[in-house]
Amino acid sequence: MDTALWILAGTVAAAFLITGLVKLFVPHATLVAKPASAWTTDFTSTQVKLIGLVEVLGAIGLVVPPLVGTAEVLVPLAAAGLMLTMLGAFGTHLRRRDPRSAMVPPLVLGSLAAIVAIGRAWISPF
Questions:
Q1: How many Å apart are CA 63 and CA 38, to the nearest integer?
Q2: φ, ψ for residue 98 (rounded to 5)?
Q3: CA–CA distance, 51 with 122 (Å, rounded to integer)
Q4: How far is residue 67's CA from residue 8's CA, in Å, rounded to a whole number?
Q5: Distance (Å, rounded) from C-alpha 117 to C-alpha 9?
Q6: Contacts of 96 (CB under 8 A, 6+ apart)
Q7: How would residue 63 be classed by pLDDT, with cut points 50, 70 and 90?
Q8: Mean of per-residue pLDDT scores for the chain
Q9: Helix-strand-coil percent breakdown of the chain, rounded to 5?
Q10: Which of 18, 28, 44, 62 could cross-link to 13 by cystine, CB 3.0-4.6 Å?
Q11: Going by C-beta distance under 8 Å and a sequence separation of 6 or more, which residues neighbour residue 21?
């Protein structure tokens, strides 16, 4: 179970790291122009960058603490935080009445983050 949770946490961390870095470093105008990130029209540039920062920090929190052998309790907390972030993303897509296909990534990533949170908190903690 430990290996499966490591693989899952690594996959979730990679996805959040990539999407977070995009939000941090791609200009707001470029994000607004892309159909896949049309939701950014509802947020300021600063808000989008803060969302990206949360995603990057969450990704780091999923893998770094156990790798350095300290504060492993941060792993389920980071996973829970990422799950809540995806709950907010899902809510944003619902509010905007976006197509269902836009709701799939937050549902999948949020569910996977929830599995990591539960797995590391109760099933196979460090």
A1: 30
A2: -70, 160
A3: 28
A4: 15
A5: 9
A6: 38, 39, 42
A7: very high
A8: 97
A9: 85, 0, 15
A10: 62
A11: 52, 56
| pTM for the predicted model, two decimal places | 0.95
pLDDT of residue 38: 93
114: which DSSP letter?
H
pLDDT, tens digit, 9 for 90 and up, residues 21-33? 999 999 999 999 9
Could you read off the pLDDT of 96-119 as tens digits, one per residue?
999 999 999 999 999 999 999 999
Token readout for 49 is: 């960058």
Q: Which residues lie closer than 8 Å to 79 by C-beta, 6 or more apart?
A: 9, 12, 58, 62, 113, 114, 116, 117, 120
Instruction: Judge whether 72 and 64 are in contact, CB under 8 Å.
Output: no
- What does DSSP assign to residue 44? -
**pLDDT on residue 126:** 84
Cα separation, 56 vs 13, in Å, equals 8
Indicate if the pLDDT at residue 85 is higher than 90: yes
